[in-house]
Amino acid sequence: MSETIIEKILSRHAGRPVRPGDIVDISIDARIARDFGGASVVKNLREHRLPVEDVSKTFFTFDCNPGGSDQKYAANQHLCRLFARERAINLFDIDAGIGTHIAIDEGLVVPGGTLVSTDSHANILGAIGAFGQGMGDQDIAAAWAFGRVWFKVPESVKIILKGAPPAGATAKDIALRLLREFGAAGLLGLSAELCGQAVDELDLSARITIASMATEMGAIILFFPPNEAVLAHFDKLGKKYAAAYADADAVYSRVVEIDVSDLVPLISRPGHPEDVVTVRDVAGTKIDSAFIGSCTNGRFEDLAAAAALLKGRRVAPGVVLKIVPATRRIWKQALDEGLIDVFVEAGALVGNPGCAGCAEGQIGQNGPGEVTVSTGNRNFAGKQGRGSVYLASPATAAASAVAGIIVTAADIPATPVAFSGGPAPAGPTRPPRAKAGAPGAADAKPTRVRGRAWVVDKDNIDTDMIFHNRHLAVTDIALMGPFTFGNLAGWEDFSKKAVPGDIVVTGSNFGAGSSRQQAVDCFKSLGIAAIVARSFGAIYERNAVNAGLPVLAGDLISSGLRSGEEITVDFVTGEVMRHETGEVFRMAPFSEIQMAIYRRGGLFGED
Fold first, then answer.
1. N or C: which end of the chain has fewer CB within 10 A?
2. In degrees rounded to 5, what are phi and psi of residue 293?
3. pLDDT computed for residue 472 by the predictor
């Protein structure tokens, strides 16, 4: 039976052949909890008196806020340290760096292996031909306790890169080209495989850059078939592996060809990673800061590319450049090879290894009105601060920092562009916080609910819009409700108006973005009876199912449904009745596993 890469890996780890649409239990080779999700993983294990199935495959990584500069992060880290001592769990502490990079560099997972993490970019493991998934706190706790998780086998897409990128085009530009092609949801719920001459020649660093942005396209994962250089890395570590390659007659839902022979430096405009234009389209835009790092561009090769442009130059007056290597090993290599000296002499701030600006509390965040060029993978409003963030390659970020304006590496002016006088532009204001409310949970678990609809007619609502990252340290569900939609323009006061039993109706790719459980639990806190969306982000849908929050995929917005109307949703049949008109709409009902989890009140509920 022919198989794609993901089918081959999941078949091996399920112990039987799989096909798209199958729901299977798969064994997990490496199970990681980070510093913001780790405390909730520990809480789940303790509350349900669960063991740790195999400590040799179980890891903590402290990469979101290595400095513990936020008291809640510091408390969570210490709680995880205590649990690690108690259960003899492997812990990569604040000096180690980004967990997914550690997993690759240390061989915690190998080609053909499986990994889960509370990091929504765990699918970065596709760079080595391994299956990686970001999951919520309950999923990770289950993986720690049982060594397995359930997973729905996705369909696969084959992406052929034609031609060779010209000089000046980087791996980040390839990633942005894919984003421009597929948008925020063009690969929603799919596994993708990259092939072609350009792919074969990409080194591990470049593969990591591209694979790390699969989440921004809605993809489950983006696979690179391991080449000789990647396999040599694991041979050097003395690791055994069984690399997975698609069969020649593997079946794909579609095949897409993309010509990269004319690729030029690209950039994402603020607010949407998929809003990709050429750098020259926005050239001349004045910037306040630049950031080089993150799981997307924090490798040594990324730092070397930036250093090559910064050597002998200074960051433009008034511009701030922040650089954060992905791991301690990369930081040390940069030090040994003189890159740190180049950065310091250029006027940059070099931070400890970690996630940096993508996580609140580390360097890389910007302030209201601040314009930043970043090498990260997300620029959602509020994600990397309260300013505006452009996404680009290390070369473009470094060149822009020197120029004081957005430019390509080939267009750095002889004299940097200075700031003009006048007041700074106003930034977005933080919405007022409502008083914390208690969850509106009911004792029974009805399979039909009737309630008032809230129609949020927007696509690609990401988890930062649902539950902003500045509240990630909140772990008590009873306190989460007031922050629901607190970063979604026009819906900041949703928590004040919603009542238990209400039903949220929304557009496509709801819950795109990170793996944070709070983006689900905040609706449980408010007592929301169900969420009906055209489609869901893959991690978000898992988190909702595991939390026992009813979610169904279907299009109610096209019917003209208005906020305030009464609707009834039947989880068994998938029927939705619009009471004002008597219309009945049909969508996919709960699967057997979703119904079972819902009836027992969540993944860890009593049967």
1. C
2. 155, -155
3. 83
β-sheet with 266-268: strand ranges across: 276-278, 266-268, 388-391, 371-374, 289-292, 320-323, 349-350
Taking residues 358-369, report their average pLDDT.
77
How many whole angstroms separate alpha carbon 522 and alpha carbon 525? 5
- pLDDT for 99-146, tens place per residue? 999 999 999 999 999 999 999 999 999 999 999 999 999 999 999 999
**Burial call 93-104: b when 16+ CB within 10 Å, e when fewer:** ebebbbbbbbbb
What is the DSSP secondary-structure string of 456-502?
E--S--BHHHHS-GGGTT---GGGTGGGTTTTSTT-TTHHHH--TT-
| 30 neighbors 113 (Cβ within 8 angstroms) | yes
- The per-residue DSSP string of 184-244 comes to TTTTTT-EEEEESHHHHT--HHHHHHHHTTTGGGT-SEEE----HHHHHHHHHTT------
Q: How far is CA 483 from CA 243, 471, 581, in A?
A: 44, 8, 33
Strands 566-570, 575-578: pairing kind: antiparallel
CA gap 310, 313 in Å, rounded = 5
* Cα(48)–Cα(45) distance, integer angstroms: 5
Give Cα separations from 349 to 298, 318, 357 (angstroms): 14, 13, 13
| pTM given for the model | 0.85
CA distance 555 to 543: 21
- 135 Cβ contact list (under 8 Å, min separation 6): 116, 117, 118, 122, 143, 149, 515, 539, 542, 543
The average confidence (pLDDT) of the chain is 93
Spatial distance between the Cα atoms of 290 and 573, rounded to a whole number of angstroms: 52
Mean pLDDT of the 291-304 span: 96
* CA 319/CA 333 separation, integer angstroms: 26
410: DSSP letter:
G
Q: pLDDT class for 601, splitting at 50, 70, 90?
A: very high
